[in-house]
């Protein structure tokens, strides 16, 4: 049995909680959260606390709080030489206080409160200062995912950067699409099959093979029309920048 | 039986061909293509030609060629008063020669030669100059899709513009993600579950609700780190522009 305490109960930790609490190999000993009042626990057997002095004994302490709070929070913990990990894609392992053994348990996925996730396919990136801790993280990860990989903080940074492009920025493109349609009272639903197919395509094709559109084929007339349809502002700037890059990359001269 | 002739045999028309040729309500009479040699037809019963003077009689002629060639090609057709449509998202109905009855049959999807598509969920946007032609297009559309909608050329332009954002530009973000990982010998596969989940999320959440990440929460430290990881160049420019926009939109001040 791996004994786990969750420190913080935001998006990542609450989804991890849901995934781990029914695993026979895992025992969730406790959840600590500063805003205790925000938690409504249907799990009678699990202890919830907002008192940092009452955190219980565990094999792994999983911190799930905003990146910029990890360092001071880990310093404020009242125990030493325990195994403390964080779940952040953006923060390195060494932001954690060195008074405890350190590690990372980063599920590479986008989490929203309103939506459940299936961890099975989600890569879980792990790192630890020593090999026995790393083994423990691997064991924990494998209870929920088929893809547990060891990765250094340095490489994880790149992975997180790439994730920002393919998730955060992509989602903002969806937002722009929805705003364009909204102005003409067209339903956003019209774009959903295209959005799904765009994502599905790269299961089998590389993004290069999957690329289509006026910018790729340097269709100047369509590009000009689109630029004219867009009012001066941020969306037009993005359109121009993407078009320039696609043009340079695929560069068919007319 | 709706008799159809395909004019051009690129991505869109060849996928439409595959979807329509087995429908009992549709008879594909002929396929015309200038580069006849490029076509290898396993369909013995269907006539293929590269001779514009030998195009056969049909109820609907479907043009599937590059946008900027539609106008002159439709002018070069040697018949009149027939019903001729194009499949382009970017071109208006009136780019077609007025010597024939005009229409649009635009499947809102991304097509690649290497990948089959299921038309059932794909919105098919139709337009025609008269109501009986429109009815015919609706009937044709409904043989392959559950979502046939009438839409004006003007609104279709906006739809196509939105499609460029959510497909072409999104796919380029995948490309950037893959380039970032490639430099560190990390497999692009790591990002695929995230990419699928990003697309799946907006089935139930609005893009606004689904948005996450350092730019949204104005996490200056992570943003700065990412900008430092990116060399001067196009990717960095895109990162900065997206971050600025997300920041302005979700604008949490620190």
From TrEMBL, chains A, B:
Protein name: DUF2520 domain-containing protein
Domain DUF2520: 122-244
InterPro entries cross-referenced by the UniProt entry: 6-PGluconate_DH-like_C_sf (IPR008927), DUF2520 (IPR018931), NAD(P)-bd_dom_sf (IPR036291), TM1727-like_C_sf (IPR037108)
SUPFAM superfamilies named in the record: 6-phosphogluconate dehydrogenase C-terminal domain-like, NAD(P)-binding Rossmann-fold domains
Domain of life: Bacteria
